[in-house]
Predict the 3D structure of the following.
Amino acid sequence: MHSSAIFTSLVAIASIAAASPTRRDTYYAVSVNVITSPGLDPNKVSEPAPIAINQLTAINCDSTGTGCASSELILDPSIAINVDINTVECRAYKDAAGVEPGSLPFNVSTPAELSTNLGSISSILCYIVETD
């Protein structure tokens, strides 16, 4: 009885893996423009950040490795590698471990507005969401 439950679980996991739209040997990524100038500055300074899908990515705008001061995060609609940009959602975190939220979820239609001054972020996680 116990072994049949394990077998059923393995079959279910295999079915989910087979239905998954991603493959392990394929790179899936997007680019997030990290606006490093204050939100009210009309001359926005943007630092592109490549973000792998389903992988917490550290963000560093300088050599200190302590994160990035940013006013806004914008998902670049022109850069999506092996994903439909319209199915991607991201979230920034204040810490490198991805524990302390630094933004609301954002996508290609809705940027993350962090502050009219500069807020600090240290990592970003992007992932695929269901579309209507």
